[in-house]
Write a structure and sequence with these properties.
Structural class: alpha+beta
Strand order of the largest sheet: 1-2-3-7-6-5-4
Number of strands: 7
């Protein structure tokens, strides 16, 4: 067999292991701090819904909104776009827009994006409110109706809508993951 192991050798091996772990943790911490500083904070790095930009030029609208407007025109459904906003980040791009509501417009959105009703307290609805654009006042609606695309969270994009039944407005939220 080999030479007996001295206690100093065991301590030295354990110290080497501890130093390696400490180095790894420090490197990880330094990388995290650098990323946070570079991105202006963790949340801002991935998405910051508090900094929406107005999208005034229809050529800058997302494809899904453009197709929605074209389909509405074909079906002779009036659409009054009140506001279109865009937030983007390292990982995704969101669009929010609001229109006057009509049964025909709700039906079109439901068909085009395979939307279905969802409960007001569901996780997607809570997320909808969490990412509500700061440029808009939150509507004071007593009985909002929420619709969600059937492939929400399953695809790299999805649409959610809130029908403000008191003020006859539709609020849409489109998510694009990169």
């Amino acid at each position: 067999m080999g030479a007996p192991v001295k206690s100093n050798d065991l301590e030295s091996t354990e110290n080497d292991r501890n130093r390696g772990c400490q180095f790894s943790l420090r490197a990880l911490l330094a990388t995290g701090i650098a990323m946070a500083l570079f991105c202006g904070g963790f949340r801002a790095c991935f998405i910051n819904p508090r900094l929406p930009k107005v999208v005034a030029d229809p050529s800058d609208f997302p494809v899904e909104l453009t197709e929605f407007l074209e389909e509405a025109e074909e079906e002779q459904i009036e659409v009054t776009l009140l506001s279109v906003l865009r937030t983007s980040s390292f990982l995704r791009e969101d669009y929010h827009w609001q229109t006057d509501a009509s049964p025909e417009l709700i039906d079109l959105a439901t068909r085009l994006w395979e939307m279905k009703p969802t409960a007001g307290g569901s996780a997607p609805v809570q997320t909808f409110w969490e990412y509500w654009p700061s440029r808009w006042a939150r509507p004071e609606c007593k009985k909002p109706e929420f619709l969600i695309s059937s492939y929400w969270w399953e695809a790299d994009w999805g649409v959610m809508a809130m029908h403000d039944t008191d003020n006859h407005r539709l609020y849409f939220w489109l998510i694009h993951d990169f």
